[in-house]
Amino acid sequence: MVKKILHLLSKEIRGLHEAAYLLGFCAILAQLLSLVRDRLFAYYFGAGPTLDLYYASFRIPDMIFVTIASMVSISVLVPFFIERVEKDFEEGKRFINNLFSTFCISIVLVSAIVFFLVPYILPIVLPGFKDSIQLPELIELTRILLLSPILLGISNFLASITQMYNRFFIYAVSPLLYNFGIVCGTVFLYPHFGVHGLVYGVLFGALLHMLIQVPFVKEQGLLPSFKFIFDLKPIREVVLISLPRTLTLSSNQIATFFLVAFASLLGVGSISIFNFSLNLQSVPLAIIGVSYSSAVFPLLTRLFSAKKHEEFVERMIVSAQHIIFWSVPITVLFIVLRAQIVRTILGAGQFSWADTRLTAASLALFTVSVVGQGLILLFVRAYYSGGKTWKPFGINLLSSTIIVLVAYSLIRLFEQVPLFQYFIESLFKVSDVSGTVVLMLPLAYSVGVLVNTVLHWLSFNRDFKNFSAPVLATLFQSVSASVIMGYVAYWGLNIFDMIFDIRTLWGIFMQGFCAGIAGIIAGIFILKLLDSRELAEVWKTLHQKIWKVEVLPEEIHTIS
Question: Computed over its alpha carbons, how large is the radius of gyration of the chain?
């Protein structure tokens, strides 16, 4: 039985759609577990001080993860591993050992230093907790979570090896195990250890995330070993390539840092509302954007290395088309069905109706940028596949700066201009709910992401001609179908409101589900009329069993 499981995990997957759909399917399972996690959080804590404390404790460990652990991330290491291991296995193994040893010393040293500095850093990065009685506990939780970037960093290092061999199943299962650990912490450890039990669950999930990578890597003879003698030349080469990527992630993380810092000043529950809605909008992003960009990355690297630039652009086109094809309709459905989604997933226990309405409005504002977030992941990986990391850094730094400045400006505008406040509250029907100023944070985030998307698109099209035309055609078809889909779903809500009792969980779920199905049917019908190529490709891939389909030559194609 164990051998069968290991064989399944180590199965090689080469087709783009096959890999993307596998990653998407596993992402759905992982996101379902994350939704179970969030429902448990909502049930036990609601949008209140305990959950604010829990989410706040991730800020510094997250920053360490993106600044140190991202230096050995998949998007950085896969090109290096492919080049060295395929050319000379023994040389590649020495390179892996050398890099692994340097990474371990670096991240452990940084975490140890931060351990002692946490009491001085937290009041600065989270000013809302500066005079709070929760500050001592926040310091304890943050220190415990400093183990998380170490475990996840090692896991990402090993995942680079599994991705090099196209073992996407292992990579796809690891987030499942991570969320499983958090759920276990919530159910089994929280009753005994309180909020400390939640972070113990995070560490358990991070450990599982790492251990799932070990058997295959060991089987290939590439399990890294610790060495005290370092060759600085290849390390310097990796650092020079990874530094812009690390700075890119850091800029995004710093933007989130500021948003959470702003949230800590906006009242109790604001951090929870922000994180709940951010997690919910991450579901379609993880299933679609992350899946396609991860699946195509090794192929893009090989094509660029072989100087097959036309085929490189073709794969980018087809990936972008399918990200748009899936993301635009889901974005529209999330906006229309936001209240039903939030109430079904989070509406239990301590999570009030006011929490539901604020989270739903925040979700709608976040979701506007989901298509852009998926495309950004693809553009960034495309540049990384060719070793061009400074351009994405510049664009992301600019967009992150925009997010922070726009967030600050919108908060001031919301608080000082009653007409603007009235417009936002009326638009999302939350005029009678307190704490609506928190909606300025997801709005600022989406503005920055949309600017980021446009800049990446224009830059990529300038570097690689003939990209935009076929992708824009898909965008037009998807938007056209999605508008009809959203309209049908909206009226479906009114119709099914009379059929189901929306005062119950089952009733509000069925209302949203049936309205969504009606909208999807209408969208498929419109896409069929528009002769959507992506719809035909999806049907063909599913019809012929995705695990047997090869990519046809003529196809154009963000711890807590």
Answer: 23
